[in-house]
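Chapter summary example.
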Amino acid sequence: MRAVQDVLLSPLDMDPGVLDRLIRHLTDAGYDLTYVGILHTNPAHDEVRGALERLQTLIEDYRHRRPSLRFECIPIRDGSHYPIDLETERDSQLFLRVLYQAVVAQKRRHRRVHLSIASGRRFMAAYAMIVAQLLFDDEDRVWRVVYRTPQSGRPVIVRTPVGSVRRFQTEVVSVPVLRWALLPSTLHEILVWDDPLRAIERQRALQASQQKQWLRQFYRSLSPAERQVLRLLAEGLSNKEIACRLRRRPKTVKNQIASIYRKYRAWIGDAGAGSIRTRLLLDVQAMRAEGLLEEAG
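The structure predicted for these 297 residues follows.
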C-alpha cells in the first residue's frame, strides 16, 4: 500500500524562518512532506517582493539539502485582479477561493494536507479555518506557531519581521478543527466544486436538511401524550398550567416531561452545563417553524 504523501500550504510570511520551522517540525514528526505551497499577493509591493526574495533563498537551500521537496509560489490572483494587499471584500474572497482551490487540488490527489495559520493577517487565519472546516478529514492538520520569550518562556504576540524565529523560542501547535461535513459522502461531494461560496451554501443546505430529519425523528419517538405536553411547553406554559389544560395530574405531567427529557438527551448526548429545558425549547421552536409539530402529529 502506497504511503500517504503530505503537503503544506501557507500564506507568505515576512520571515522565511517561520516556514522553515514548520517544515522541520513536520519532518521531525514523521510526516512525508513532498510539497510546499506558499500563497502570496502582488510582489509589486516592496514588503511582498522582499519576502519572496528571502523565501527564494530558503528554497534554494532546500534544493541542495532536500531535492525531493517541491516548492510552489501560488499567486492570489484572478486574471488582471492581482491585489497588492487584501483590503476589500473582493480581495478577501479571492484569497478564500485561491486557498480553497489549492486544498481541493491536493485532496483530489488523496494527499494529507497541513495548513499553516502562523503567517499572514489574522483574517487569513479565519478564512483558512473556514477552508479546513469545509474540506478537512481526520488526517489533515492545521498548525500555528507560538512565540515565547527566551527569559520567561511566556507566550507573546508578535508580527513576524525578519529574524523573529531566531529571537524567540517557538513551538508548533496543532489547532483542532470542527468539521462541517458530518458524513464522508458530504466531503466527497464538496470536493467536486471549485467555488468555496457554493460549497458553503451547499453545506448549509445539507446541515439544515439533517437538522430537520433529526428533529422529526426525535418528535416521532415521543408518545402521543408526550407530544401534547411538548406542544404546550413550546407555548411557554408551566407544568401546572399544562396539567390544567390537559386535565392531568401534575405528577403525571412531571413524569411525561422527564420522559421527554430522557429521550431528548438520548438524541443530543451530554447536554453539558446548559439547561436541558432551554435547549429543548429552542429546538421545539425550530420544529414549529419548520411545521414539524403539525406534520408529525
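To summarize the output: Residues 205 and 211 are 10 Å apart (CA to CA).
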